[in-house]
Give the backbone structure.
Amino acid sequence: MRDALVAAAFRLFLERGYEQTTVDDIVALAGVGRRSFFRYFPSKEDVVFPDHERCLTDMKAFLARSPEDADPVRRVCDAARLVLGMYAENPAFSVQRYHLTKKVPGLRAYELSVVWRYERALAEYLRGRLGGRPDGILRADVIAAAVVAAHNNALRSWLRSDGRDDAGAAVDHALAYAQSAFGDVPAAPRGESPEDVVVVAARRGTPLWQVLREIESAF
Amino acid sequence: MRDALVAAAFRLFLERGYEQTTVDDIVALAGVGRRSFFRYFPSKEDVVFPDHERCLTDMKAFLARSPEDADPVRRVCDAARLVLGMYAENPAFSVQRYHLTKKVPGLRAYELSVVWRYERALAEYLRGRLGGRPDGILRADVIAAAVVAAHNNALRSWLRSDGRDDAGAAVDHALAYAQSAFGDVPAAPRGESPEDVVVVAARRGTPLWQVLREIESAF
DNA sequence: TCCTTTCACTGCACTGAGTGCCATCGACCT
DNA sequence: AGGTCGATGGCACTCAGTGCAGTGAAAGGA
């Protein structure tokens, strides 16, 4: 019945738009009582995101069973990949939903609250790992936000491509950038080259970001 | 009349809670017609955040008049400080609102959509500045998210202190961390020292964060 | 087989947010 | 005075979401 409601809802949403579709329309098409709709979905918006609750639970479980010696930043990146996996499970559905949420402000707001809950899950885990270090809580919040932003950036560009691009590669690349900003590199290239040492020279007072640009290209 | 509505609304919200207060209650206390409420505030939630619209406009204007040669990361940090300024203008009101939004899920969701608009403003500015560079759009999104997260972390800890802590110092510290992660330092020391050039040498394959730690301390 | 319990589903009535429409009233202009 | 315009108020309506009670079918126990 859940699935029937989701199917009926999306048919109508795509036909005549989200706001132009009432809950009564949905239940009429699905052939169920109005009251049952609200048994399965606490609000009209929830029918658009039917599987995020499960995915959030999965993410929390994934973080909870992290080994003690795992790199926390890498761990939250892997957790973020779970969300991508959920989107990739059903590309056509995800792309439809993307176009829907892009147009309807109410759905965008709802999506934000969903994303926020993912971000909080990551931040809570990081707080536990970094809590002792100086500025641990600050670091945890900032890293979680950066990881989520990187993930969403890649996810959205994949959705804009109608699911044709390689989602995994895009997310890997985006998360690698986020990781690099916070003190880890995904795979330290250990070359055999004789030129094994990099030297950077800069005038004192040079804006640090200019120096860093050089460093990054050198590495 | 706007102010009268806000005052009446907050009196009732604090007395009996947000959800237990209807719009009819508010307009009855303020002595105005129900229709006028929705003339000034498009929704019941908007009355809780009466000045964010203006602040968002200010932020966009601030970013639009940025000098071409400004460091973009520092610029968005300064833009974020505008939001702190708005909160600090009226500490008592901000603290009350904080406790309200912490309890009411609907208000938290609304706040998220407000924060999201700030973040988009910062990201749009950064996209304009970094758009040409490789991964410019990704960088813009991630930096904006990190700056907002750092700002909010400091803002929230100030709100939790009931406005007693030094908000400016906390935000400066948090933003300095965010800046440091993305390649700028808050105040580049322009020394007179004869040792005006810094040389950093590192073996290829060294984790980037180790190199960065050396750079930061050297500068 | 019959009775009972349980549970998913339905219908109904109600609250409250938000909107469209029109009447009103006062300020300001000519 | 007469007219115009903008702000306001009142009214009726739609629709999301909730509480309550009723129904029926499946499960279980004597």
